[in-house]
Amino acid sequence: MTRRVTLLTDFGTADGFVGAMKGVIADGAPGVVIDDVAHDLPSGDVVAAAYALRRYWRLYPEGTIHVVVVDPGVGTSRRALTLQAEGRFIVCPDNGCASRVLEDATSWRAVDLSRVQTPEAVRTGRSRTFHGRDVFAPAAAALAHGASLEELGASLTDPLLIPEPSPTRSGTRVAGVVVAIDRFGNLLTNVPGEWLAASAKVEIRGRTAAARATYGDAHEGELIALISSDGRVEVAVRGGSAAALLGASRGDEVAVVG
Amino acid sequence: MTRRVTLLTDFGTADGFVGAMKGVIADGAPGVVIDDVAHDLPSGDVVAAAYALRRYWRLYPEGTIHVVVVDPGVGTSRRALTLQAEGRFIVCPDNGCASRVLEDATSWRAVDLSRVQTPEAVRTGRSRTFHGRDVFAPAAAALAHGASLEELGASLTDPLLIPEPSPTRSGTRVAGVVVAIDRFGNLLTNVPGEWLAASAKVEIRGRTAAARATYGDAHEGELIALISSDGRVEVAVRGGSAAALLGASRGDEVAVVG
Amino acid sequence: MTRRVTLLTDFGTADGFVGAMKGVIADGAPGVVIDDVAHDLPSGDVVAAAYALRRYWRLYPEGTIHVVVVDPGVGTSRRALTLQAEGRFIVCPDNGCASRVLEDATSWRAVDLSRVQTPEAVRTGRSRTFHGRDVFAPAAAALAHGASLEELGASLTDPLLIPEPSPTRSGTRVAGVVVAIDRFGNLLTNVPGEWLAASAKVEIRGRTAAARATYGDAHEGELIALISSDGRVEVAVRGGSAAALLGASRGDEVAVVG
Fold first, then answer.
1. 3-state secondary structure of A27
2. Which residues does B120 contact at the CB level (< 8 Å), separation at least 6?
3. A42 touches chain C (CB under 8 A)
4. % of chain B at pLDDT higher than 90
5. Which chains sit next to A, with 3 or more Cβ pairs under 8 A?
6. Could A6 and B12 be called an inter-chain contact, meaning their C-beta atoms sit closer than 8 Å?
7. Position A75 pLDDT exceeds 90
8. Least crowded by CB within 10 Å, which of A2, A51, B100, C68?
9. pTM for the model
10. Is there a contact between B15 and A52 if contact means CB atoms under 8 Å apart?
11. What does the buried/exposed string (b/e) look like for B70-90 if buried means 16 or more CB atoms within 10 Å of the residue's CB?
12. Which of C45, C55, C100 has the highest number of chain A CBs within 10 A, making it the mutation to test binding with A?
């Protein structure tokens, strides 16, 4: 069976770091298929990584190994982990990257990566600055080669969870926040889509967006609220960027009214 | 046989959207190999997508499934399609993305994607905003798994074609336009390369570029015209960007003289 | 056995050039796996390519085919080559891209690519401007399909080497230079890590960076010197960019003192 590994990092694509990780994985698990998800995450942005991972971890088949390396704490005492959740593996620093998986999975178990062997080929020994190559890639290779979770490290029961803030309801008004902004400038909120009535309005940064079923129901340039592909309330501009129009950023308050 | 899928989108590489598409494809067609072509196309630029696709669709072997998702009309009534052309498949919105394939292929047939099943794993049901994940990826997975064109949808005979403007000839003067600009700032035109005589000149934005056989025949910084790797007349600057030097953009007029 | 090809280019990811190369490789070697390393190298920056390649060429298993296309001299008389070094292949223009491999490999041999056949599918014939598609991809496909080095071309014993400058020592002071800057703004130098004593300081652009074992030993925003994942002295800012803080660029002088 072909094993599949995915990569999500903030390494960019102007250097050889991604190649170093892939080389270690390919060396440890010949024939493995490696899918890039994204390498241009904002540098060190663990929360953005958590939301990006949420979009795909469970769509891949069981057995897939998802590697996430957004690691501002490399070289500190932060732990490294592998999570097994609904048959998929998540290999990442223990810094909150896996928060959305921890919240969404029906069950999970985790190990630290204390038993992962840095491969011989990394000649200078395990570095203090590039655990993507020296810890996470070898862990992924071991899993792709058939290792069990326990071969990677000791059980870990308290992975760092950065909880998603909960929306609050008061009468017909729901207060939430922008949790992620995508490349099109759409604003993803923490408000469940079922709370967006067809006649609702969303208030954000002094502006009001009317609920629409889809982009096709809006005119070009209109600020609208709709149910995103993740089932959340999203604020968007048809054919434009809501983030740019509103000067919005993550954490901005939104209110769904009526 | 390993099936091969390629992806061309404007999703960027700072998010999880590409991962969502790949997850659905990998889940539906285990062992499939997925090649990224590009994910940084200008947002919503269907014409740029059409020219990018032209550069590779026929170089891949027969049986390859090319997925293109540049989809400003998602959520409107625009159709989705799969084209079979010279043994390759093109899966994309019916918005002109496939225009160059329609023009270049010796023959083709097409279906809409009305019979594509959104996979169970996409829990919120088929979304109105992310057909890359909910329609195009499942169609690609079905093809990679061996489905016939007819299993995807009903026959479609009028895919949207955004025709390439034709150059016009008058005496020794050929009038054309810039149809695409690449990352190096080279200006690709619609004028066939065989119309560029060795002694010809190309006029563009008040400047004149002399014909050269290749970059090596020009001095550093020289504005030149040459036959591109697509067999078209191209305007370039050796070691620089013609687009920047001329302030050129798509649609600018060019004239090949003499 | 699945053959593996890696790609490192400056083609960007907003066009179809990468797709054209992959198509030719996939057509010539069905079932091949192609790993992207990076496509956003600074345009024409051969030295950056050489340092990027250094990070991964030997981490991949023997038999891997590394393709590097940063080719400002395409269309001039510069040669094309394939290098076999420690069981891996490097396919690239003969412009210095392979310099770090030539320096690091215990042994190598090389051929020019004079016998490579441009595939029939590239209909306009071998172009003068896109050797990535017309020369390097076909060479990679041939190797992936089992060709020997000799089938690609004639022996070549003098590939272009852009030597890395050597650091110079005088008393307790080592003078070196910045050789590469990564996406995080870390400054990689040519000074071997073993020359960085625990009590050493690094002088650069009028500032002084104290040696630290790892980022975790520095406070946020501190300018530090440490041993990089390549075993070199590196200047960094914890949680920030040393390049931005110092206005540093490649070639800047550094001194390791004490």
1. helix
2. none
3. no
4. 87
5. B, C
6. no
7. no
8. A2
9. 0.96
10. yes
11. bbbbbbbebbbbbbbbeebbb
12. C55
List the single residue in B31, B44, B77 with the smallest CB-CB distance to A2: B31
Pairs of residues, one from chain A and one from chain B, whose beta carbons lie less than 8 Å apart = 124
Whole-angstrom CA distances from B122 to A60, A241, C222 are 11, 25, 45
Q: Do C213 and A18 touch (CB under 8 A)?
A: no
The per-residue b/e assignment along B183-221, b for 16 or more CB within 10 angstroms, e otherwise, is bbbbbbbbbbbeebeeebebbbbeeebbbbebbebbeee
What is the signed CA dihedral for C30, C36, C37, C43, rounded to 10 degrees? Answer: 110
Which residues on chain C are in Cβ contact (under 8 Å) with A36? 36
Task: For residues A141 and A133, give the distance between their C-alpha atoms in angstroms, rounded to a whole number.
Answer: 11
**Closest residue, chain B, to C78 (C-alpha):** B216
The pLDDT assigned to C60 comes to 97
| Subunits adjacent to chain C (3 or more Cβ pairs under 8 Å) | A, B
> What average pLDDT does this structure show over A225-238?
94
Q: What per-residue confidence (pLDDT) applies to B126?
A: 62
Compute how many other C-beta atoms are within 10 angstroms of the C-beta atom of residue C221: 10
Is residue C232 within 8 angstroms of chain A, CB to CB? Answer: no
Instruction: Give the least confident one: A116-130, A163-177, B110-124.
Output: A116-130
Which residues on chain B are in Cβ contact (under 8 Å) with A4? Answer: 26
Q: Choose among B37, B48, B215: nearest Cβ to C19.
A: B37
ipTM: 0.96
**How far apart, in whole angstroms, are the C-alpha atoms of residue C239 and residue C62?**
36
Spell out the residues 6+ positions from residue C92 whose beta carbon is closer than 8 angstroms to its own: C49, C67, C68, C69, C70, C80, C81, C83, C98, C136
DSSP string, B9-73: ES--SSSSHHHHHHHHHHHHSTT-EEEEEES-SPTT-HHHHHHHHHTTTTTSPTT-EEEEE--TT
Q: Which residues of chain B have a CB within 8 Å of the CB of C133?
A: 59, 229
pLDDT in tens, A136-173: 999 999 999 999 999 999 999 999 999 999 999 998 89
Closest CA in chain B for residue A236: B129
Q: Do A26 and C64 touch (CB under 8 A)?
A: yes
Q: Cβ–Cβ of B35/C19 closer than 8 Å?
A: yes
**Is the model's pLDDT at C258 over the cut of 90?**
no
CA of A89: how far to CAs of A111, A136, A148, B14, B27, in Å?
11, 12, 11, 21, 15
Tell me the pLDDT tens digit for each residue of C189-208.
999 999 999 999 999 999 99
Chain A nearest-CA residue for B131:
A229
The pLDDT tens digits for A191-204 are: 999 999 999 999 99
Under DSSP, is residue A24 helix (H, G, I), strand (E, B) or coil? helix
A183/B15 CB distance under 8 A: yes
- Judge whether A189 and A177 are in contact, CB under 8 Å: yes
Average pLDDT, chain B: 94
Taking CB atoms and an 8 Å limit, are C16 and B64 in contact across chains?
no
